[in-house]
Design goal:
The chain is mainly beta. The protein has 3 helices and 16 strands. It has a 14-stranded antiparallel beta barrel with strand order 1-4-5-6-7-8-9-10-11-12-13-14-15-16. A two-stranded antiparallel ribbon has the order 2-3. The two termini are about 40 Å apart.
């Protein structure tokens, strides 16, 4: 068509889109630029071309950064994760002191995330991915649970074969956690993920991780070092995209923790179901923001511990835990939105010292760049 009539900007655009999808970005750029060079190009065509040119600039750039920040308030009915008032001490019934009993509280929290991609070049899209996460919270009343956390992971994203779409990512990780401005936990480890497309609507993914953690004793937590040890974690899941606005995932996981104290060592099995759906916005805060996102997350765990804690009971501890969370996100502008959510956590145990129930609600503002 262009040989017989080269003055067809829409044909140039469609050829540009074709080469863009083939990841031949320079050929695509050439056709897009030729389309823009024509006089009287319709505005809708100009906008579409500029969107593709922006994506080409990002895809061909050696460095790509993405940032997100969020903050808000969270209320918890059991902020200190305390059990009921009645516990066991050397298998004898006892009542917790007032300072250790369940306390409700509200905190203010803030988080920031940075993702950096270093593009290795080539048609496969291989890159080095680095993620940095920061989180902090300050309690209004239970101030010995103020949190400061930094975590980092980095590793390459590698395509096994372009036609297969299979991607693997080995990585190294590290994190540091402080409670009430006192060092609490430091972690180093390695891991890896794999993503395997099964069809246009289904993807199989898996992750394995091995890490070692050091805990630091303090006046408030004099026996924290009992948790020192190693952890091995594995998860396999299937993601589904039954419709363009619905995302589902089901997964099973296993975890083995070997702590310096046998009564803190355990084996864990877990299942997870997550779903998110984009729904028509009942209130459109900004032009073009036609949908809100509703997310649901349900998880279940069972844990068996290696040995009894002699201070508590001669009975070995067993636990079952259920978590459920729901959240809704509403965009205000192209980069800023508001969110609200609620969560429930229930830990059942054969020993009363470890039974926990907590209900939480939260809300805040987030921005993505």
């Amino acid at each position: 068509m262009l040989i017989y009539n080269p003055k067809l900007p829409r044909v140039h655009v469609e050829l540009g889109v074709l080469y863009f999808r083939l990841q031949s970005y320079e050929a695509a750029r050439s056709y897009f630029q030729q389309a823009l060079a024509f006089p009287d190009v319709p505005e809708v065509v100009q906008q579409r071309v500029k969107q593709f040119l922006d994506q080409i600039d990002k895809a061909t750039s050696k460095h790509l950064f993405a940032f997100s920040v969020s903050g808000g308030l969270r209320y918890q009915s059991n902020a200190n994760s305390a059990s009921g008032n009645n516990v066991l001490v050397i298998d004898l019934p006892a009542v917790l002191g007032a300072q250790f009993q369940r306390k409700s509280d509200t905190n203010v929290f803030a988080s920031a995330r940075m993702r950096h991609l270093y593009n290795f070049g080539g048609q496969r899209g291989d890159a080095l991915e680095t993620n940095v996460n920061l989180y902090g919270s300050r309690q209004f009343k239970v101030d010995d649970l103020d949190i400061a956390l930094v975590s980092v992971n980095t590793g390459p994203i590698l395509t096994i074969a372009p036609a297969s779409g299979i991607k693997v990512r080995p990585y190294i990780l590290g994190s540091f956690l402080a409670l009430s401005a006192e060092p609490y936990q430091g972690t180093l480890g390695v891991g890896g993920t794999i993503s395997i497309p099964l069809s246009r609507m289904a993807t199989l993914d898996a992750e394995v991780r091995a890490q070692t953690s050091d805990y630091y004793d303090s006046i408030v937590r004099p026996t924290a070092s009992n948790l020192d040890g190693q952890e091995i974690f594995g998860e396999i899941g299937v993601g589904l995209l039954p419709r363009s606005n619905i995302r589902l995932r089901a997964a099973v996981s296993g975890r083995k923790v070997d702590a310096s104290a046998d009564f803190q060592s355990y084996d864990e099995f877990g299942v997870a179901l997550t779903a998110s759906v984009d729904v028509p916005a009942p209130v459109a805060f900004t032009k073009g923001a036609s949908s809100w996102t509703l997310s649901l997350d349900a998880r279940g765990f069972t844990r068996g511990y290696d040995a009894a804690n002699p201070i508590v009971s001669a009975t070995v501890r067993d636990e079952d835990e259920i978590r459920a969370d729901a959240q809704i996100y509403a965009p205000i502008t192209g980069t800023v939105g508001v969110f609200a959510g609620m969560g429930w956590r229930d830990v059942g145990s054969n020993l009363p010292n470890y039974r926990i129930e907590n209900f939480s609600v939260m809300g805040g503002v987030s921005a993505r760049f």
